[in-house]
Amino acid sequence: REANSVDFVAEEMPSGKPEAVALGSATLLALSAPVALTAGSAFVSSNAGPSHPQRSPALRVTQGHGSNALRPARGVAAAAGVTVSTAVLGAAAAMRRSRRPVRVAVRAVDGQWQPRTSGWEPAELQAERARAQAMPEPGNYNGPRYMGPGSVTDVFIDALLAQQQNGVILPQKDIYLMVLDVIDILRNEPTMGQVSIPAGQSLTVVGDLHGQYWDFMNLLSMAGKPSPSSPFIFNGDFVDRGSWSIEVITTIFAMKLKDPQHVFLNRGNHEMLETNILYGFAGECGSKYDMDLFNLFSEAFRNLPLCHLVDQKVLVLHAGLPGPDPRIWMPGQTHDPTDSIPLGALPSLQDIGAVDRYMEIIPTAYAESIGPTTTEKQVVDTRIMIDMLWGDPRGGDGYGPSYRKGKGVYMFGPNVSEAFCQKNGLQAIIRSHEVKADGFRWDHQKILSVFSAPNYLDTGNNKAAFLKLARAADASVAIEPVAFSAVPHPDLPPMHWQEHITQNYSHLTRTMKKKVSELSFDEFGDSDFEGLMNFDEWEPDEAEQFQEAFKVDQYGRDLKSD
């Protein structure tokens, strides 16, 4: 693995052999093609359309399909990196001349299925709804039927939970229509939602669930189900890694449809196309339904809010606070708490609420986010999204490099969280994203992490937790963590359904034998287990490895060695 590679991630595959998994060259091309369209920018800008009345032009990876699609030439993935076909480059030149959006899509390569990287237009969603409605009625199915949002009642949800525990899922027609209705709801929600704790009641915040359905059922038995008197915030990472992601997301979406004003969803880094292909959810969709449903789920995920503000006092987001501005990357920076990028200007809640979240973060976007201060909305929005979906707290002040990606993802110190809360009048910030030994942890004085997947990946030996928020007598928000342990589940290993991708869609991923070495960090991109570590206790050899990996200048460009 080259030091500047950003598209690799590590997993323990179902075979038990440690392997590094990367997006296949064809898929990476599909995700990366738009980069060529605008210099120094990762996304194509286009109008959001009438379904996004309060949004500025959406940042979409690609847009358009069918006769407008441009297919890459064969064999374009070279050792030097991913290139774009001459047709795409020609379209880029035309856009630079006209300053009008260009429609580019990669729907298939050599006739092989590719994940849809384009946003859905209202007419396309309407056509997909008509296709779903024309699907055959299920035979030999006696469970609850989805007939629109009004059909989701307490009885429906109880029956759904029971049948899923018995291995029965909703019919394909029903799940398609359910996801389409959730998309309609999410498209009209703001990037930062507002939540109020009911008087005399409580609000429940749920952290990462990661497809651990039986543990989710245990959580609901303790916390109760969402209702108008008991609202819930699900704080991202509903799917991936665990092998019952379909059951988990179906349950959450059913609850959202039943009580759309009392069930709130935040996007996590596992509600992204890249991670879903690599960590199991895409394969689970294909195994239990079909890959076209995965495309529809991806559209729902792109429309998820980034955060929710509770009673103007507590901000709930999935991962991190906005990173340094200017967004510098220090050569050889280690995780020593005294080695940091200093605190700079921080955005307001209004700035975060104005982010156009309707985008996919492509593999090259992390390193490309590094650079000087800018007012260009597209760049600013991308940086904030990366931070809110990937960042982590650290013990020392300022900012430092993250464990999770090669470049462009940061950890933030206690002075950052304190300054952000003071600027925005916040009592605390609740986030998830990391395993915690007890299920929760006050990482900073005003940063509380909650993780709701116990015995993560069947090996974490961690407890999980959820949070109960209530109004205190002094008008503050009282926060009570409730910890719980794992419960038994059927004998199915984590990442089980990823085999569907590797066996049937091998062009989407490639496997590389991971170098045999014991590393206490995940060099390939996404390790929630780092939440169990003391971030500030590093051995010299570990610091040296990071210094070797990050030999770049202040703008993230690789430094040439003599």
Could you characterize the architecture of this molecule?
This protein has 16 helices and 23 strands. A hairpin with a 5-residue loop joins β1 and β2 (18-23). The strands form seven sheets. It has a six-stranded mixed sheet. A five-stranded mixed sheet has the order 12-11-10-21-22, with helices on one face. Helices cover 29% and strands 16% of the residues. It has helices at residues 25-32, 86-98, 122-133, 154-165, 172-186, 213-223, 245-258, 273-278, 281-288, 291-302, 349-353, 365-368, 377-390, 414-424, 498-504, 540-549, and strands spanning 8-12, 18-23, 44-46, 58-60, 77-78, 81-82, 108-109, 112-113, 192-195, 203-206, 232-234, 263-265, 307-310, 314-317, 392-393, 399-401, 410-412, 428-431, 440-444, 447-450, 464-471, 477-484, 509-513. It has 562 residues and is an alpha/beta fold.
Number of helices in the DSSP assignment = 16
Structural class: alpha/beta
Beta strand count: 23
Indicate the proportion of strand residues: 15-25%
Sketch the major β-sheet.
Answer: 6 strands, mixed
Q: Which percent range fits the helix content?
A: 25-40%
Radius of gyration: 22 Å
- The strand line-up of the biggest sheet is 9-13-14-18-20-19
Residue stretches low in confidence (pLDDT < 50, at least 5 long) are 1-22, 24-107, 511-525, 531-556
Any idea what the shape is?
A: globular
Through-space gap between termini: 21 Å
Overall mean pLDDT stands at 78
Task: Chart the SSEs and their pairings.
Blueprint (H helix, E strand, L loop, with lengths): L7 E5 L5 E6 L1 H8 L11 E3 L11 E3 L16 E2 L2 E2 L3 H13 L9 E2 L2 E2 L8 H12 L20 H12 L6 H15 L5 E4 L7 E4 L6 H11 L8 E3 L10 H14 L4 E3 L7 H6 L2 H8 L2 H12 L4 E4 L3 E4 L31 H5 L11 H4 L8 H14 L1 E2 L5 E3 L8 E3 L1 H11 L3 E4 L8 E5 L2 E4 L13 E8 L5 E8 L13 H7 L4 E5 L26 H10 L13
Parallel strand pairs: 9-13, 10-11, 11-12, 14-18, 15-17, 18-20
Antiparallel strand pairs: 1-2, 2-23, 3-4, 5-6, 7-8, 10-21, 13-14, 16-17, 19-20, 21-22
Helix pairs in contact: 3-5, 4-7, 5-7, 5-10, 9-10, 9-15
